[in-house]
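Let's study a protein:

===
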Amino acid sequence: MFGDIAGVEREAEKVLSLRGREAAAKIFAKAAKMREVHLREMEKFESRRKSQGDAVLSGDLEVDVSVDAADMGEAEEASLDKSLDMRYIAQISENYYQLGYDHLFASNAEEAEKYFAKADKSTAELLKAAEKENDKELCAIARKRLFNIRVYRKDYTAPKVIPVGEAGAAVWLGELDVLRARGAFDEAAEAGERAFSLSPSVKVIKKILAARDNLPGKEALIDWLLKHSSDKRFNKIERIEILNIAGEYASKKFRPETVKKIAQIIKSLGSEPRGWVKILDEYEEFARFPRPESEIVFPKTLKDFGVAKEGKTVKASNYLDLDSDGKDMTRAIQEALNAPDVSKVIIDKLERPWRITSVKIPSNRHIVLEKGVSIIGEEISRTVKKADGSMFVISKAANIIIEGLGEKPEDCHIGKFSTREERRRRGTRYGGSAVGIEGRNVLIKNVSLSYNNNDGCSIGGQFSPSRQLWFDNVKFDGNFRQGMSVINAKGMYLRKCVFSNTDGGAPMAGVDFEPVYPSEYVNEIYFMDCVFSKNGGGGLLVATSSFHPVTISARRCLFESQPCSGILTTARTTYYTSAEKPALGLIQIEDSTLCRWMGQGAVDFLGCPLFDMKFINSKVKISDKRPRGTVPDGTMVTTNAVWGPTWAKWRDYPFKAKIDFSGLSQEK
């Protein structure tokens, strides 16, 4: 019963996040009715337990009781009763709280207040009992629940008695957190100022900043930080800390001139600014973007990455067990890569495909695939969810080349499956890419990264971007999720690459630029002579928000007919919508052809245009074969504003990107 309630509440939460409160209200109301029935059953059980003792300890209450009361002493029996009482209070408190929440989002305000009041009382009782028994887990649960009750209650009131000094500051900081969670940012900032007046500290400044960042006037907020950095109540170390907070904040608000000023102040105090100061270099790079093609020189050997001395060459087949049945050859390739003093590993052609799960490539390795080599997923790794890793993993490694020796990319294949048909028949869920990169100085050349359950290649970086990545004559065909996913990359160069037939699971783009966090990069990306064809989610999808400049260049590229537009741009909404300066970015399309299909624009702005975009000597070609007049002629660009509540915020975005269509023409 309880599990069913939780499932309904999870469904309601999902609908709430995707479609809004009105759509979720009926589901929350259903959950509330179910939980009220459950609560009545609990109350009946507790009444029986108190009247009949251990006879009803049947497991209805979520406490494991496997001890015969007859075997207990009085002290043990009293301890068990106390434990059961406390666990009962905890569950009653949880049910009251959850009922209040369900009724709140079912728009039953009176019922919500009634249950929140009961939850408040029972949770305070729980906290008192848990503190007495020194139950740290229950104490943490009770405090968190009391906080949430104050956030959701309509009749919320601030504490009436505030102590002085640090104790009083702690109370006001608690108020700040509650008010901020309620969306009362003015009041939250005021509570923070009261805390600061009682006990000025860097911690309080950080809290106030978090509240005030939701209000207009970001420039004034930077001035406020700078004022406190010269407050005589702070020592030199604290002043430098506040300046670093101000510098990081200014960098995230696209204010390089302020960043430079703060960096100079920190240096005058005999210290060095933190990593946020690097934004100045990025702004200088942005001014030079895009670079002339003559400056982009593809590496050929490990020496071009700065590897002074190359080691010996080995063949992976030398590490195969002669008795092996060929079902899993992972160990042979891994041992060849890990061999001492090795720099080049040749994966030689066998009569059958190489079958692997996942191998990790160390730094300073040149992997050569002989013509005709096919590396596919070992059977279990293609079907079992626990084996979802990339086939070749580059993690915290540098100076790596993966090169095929065929005349065309298809001559050397890396992918979970052998063909697109097999992948579509058997690879029906997300799970595993051909190559996963979190590193720097990587060249992939003359290979096919195709027919995978996730991507041909996935590029990320947990704490810093992957840098200086080179893709030369690589084919990304028939992958399930993306031809390529770019989560965190700075400096990526793609020449004569093909991204085609991506289908299976969203987004299904040829290349998807989609960082998870705004601290991640989509920077200095160059496509040259690339083809995007028949990808279910379009050719290039730019779905990002970033503190760093977003810069993408495409030269002499062909965006063939596909179910979505050739280029789609959008953004994660959590960052840019609160900006007080426009997002810094440039997408430049030069000497390229975009084919319009099914009445959609060759370029589609999802939400609203965000980054500056410039077209030079490019054209839109109508390529569908349907009768003339079926699709309105002349559409080169579309704007899709019909999204859910999350995307509606874009209508209030205060800045308009500079879109230069003067270099984009349409064939008649």
